[in-house]
């Protein structure tokens, strides 16, 4: 019984997988909020390089990975697929549990899969600096790493509550040369306006996105880089699922259940989309579960309609499940899951019943993470703990039914910089949040009357 299923570097995928041509119907286009008409590709060139704009809208089933990107990928890819033997034993389950370990990258998460690609394409077009947002800091540290590799400057707007909770992720970004500011900040018009309205705000990813987009749009030598949600970001992450497919074939396994945590959707999409392509073609039958926090229940309680991707309304309108772009979730430790919307491609597949969403409070997730750390040895990121909670619940179901299902999940990142959160959990000081539905309704009522998409 193998514990680590490894691929040689020669098996590194040559191209990213594009799910768009496999969808039952084309995805809804982003809309210009002023006209209500679909955004033109040239409208996005003020903050994105041409290559990424082309990928965002590409109908091609495969997008070749540049050799310069593969060269950086080889620092840690292909990543291991691991069998969780000890967890299976602790749960007394007949299920076989595997996890794709994305924690082995230099920043410790899946995020550099797209950060490296985005930095490469921007450098190629002569951009000097990238501006971005980050929640818990996984994306900010990944982009800082990628910018250092390609000799770009990097500015990160970090959600204020995470800026205060996670000082070591700031340290990581600083080591790789990035400048990091708590968001909202006084550096942008959007930040100043939000601080004037609510000086005690703890920030949100929507606010941080507004600041980063404004920064990029007002500086000619600067572009914006996004860590999740957009099609080209999810595309780059499919290297996770493509490797996982090869590794499962190597040991003659087929997944019955695929699980990942979802904030904006990048690790989940990257892991599941190659398999969903098989599902849509009738070549695989598997349950696909997307796990989010009850404090930010976008897929489970949000509405499916057009909304802004940021708080200030600077982005195009995206058709997605949303809690309203002014929604400000509680300061849970899974900062990467505190986003008001989700990737439109994921939302479309939820709407069509291909993906099943599920939400958990943070204490049961930390409980699952501690059990995982005690059995498998790796400390999960708080975001990853949500996937592990669902894995354990599915494995317990298998124990009760006697079914020998194969459960595969994405271990999206380690929690080495989240130990204060684990201390709080072990001391019984973590709060559980189930965001009140009336608060969600209030945020949704503030939405402008742009198209619902329904």
Mean pLDDT score: 93
The proportion of residues in beta strands is 15-25%
Silhouette = globular
User: What Rg is obtained from the alpha carbons, in whole angstroms?
Assistant: 20 Å
Task: Please provide the count of β strands.
Answer: 15
> Which bin fits the share of residues in helices?
25-40%
Strand order of the largest sheet: 1-4-5-15-10-11-14
Give the quaternary arrangement of the chains. single chain
Largest sheet: 7 strands, mixed
* Second CATH tier, the architecture of the domain at 67-108 and 232-445: 3-Layer(aba) Sandwich
Q: What ranges have pLDDT less than 50 throughout 5 or more consecutive residues? A: none
The CATH C-level name of the domain at 67-108 and 232-445 is: Alpha Beta
Fill in the CATH topology of the domain at 67-108 and 232-445: Rossmann fold
First-to-last CA distance: 49 Å
- Secondary-structure-based class equals alpha/beta
Count helical runs: 18
Characterize the structure shown:
- The relative contact order is 0.15.
- It contains 18 helices and 15 strands.
- It has 454 residues and is α/β, with parallel strands linked by helices.
- The strands form four sheets. It has a seven-stranded mixed beta sheet with strand order 1-4-5-15-10-11-14, sandwiched between helices. It has a four-stranded parallel beta sheet with strand order 8-7-6-9, sandwiched between helices. The chain has a two-stranded antiparallel ribbon with strand order 2-3.
- The protein has a domain at 67-108 and 232-445: Rossmann fold.
- The radius of gyration is 20 Å and the shape is globular.
- Helix 1 (50-56) packs across helix 10 (231-237), helix 2 packs antiparallel against helix 4 (112-124) and helix 5 (138-149) runs parallel beside helix 7 (167-175).
- 40% of the residues lie in helices and 16% in strands.
